[in-house]
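Researcher: I'd like a structural prediction for the single chain below. Treat it as a standalone chain; there are no partners to consider.
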Amino acid sequence: MGAKTEDFSVSVTNEEVVAAIVPMQEHWLPLSNLDLLLPPLDVGVFFCYKNPMATSTTLGDSEVVSNNMGEPEVLCNNRGVDFVEAVADVELKCLNFYNPDDTIEGKFVPKKKNGVLAVQVLYT
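Model: Treating it as a single chain, here is the predicted structure.
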């Protein structure tokens, strides 16, 4: 599924923090038992869409903090989500989706600065 294309560039065109339009009250959510069993990991996921999606109505933000008993909880505080727009000089059909580490690692998924989520929109 595509040739090995490692020599393409990704240029960031815009960076901003997107928060929900309607302010929400800060609140705490306890982690599930599954969340407590698994070690904390940062996972990169990317999706391909034909049309841009509306984001300002759906993206709030949160951060994982410890409560007074030392258990992790999610603090939902509407700080916003790091949102990056970028352009790549490669076609999707040229990427190796069988082994994405070869072609997209560090290029299509942004590094998380704050909170628990970062979003990057990439135009190719």
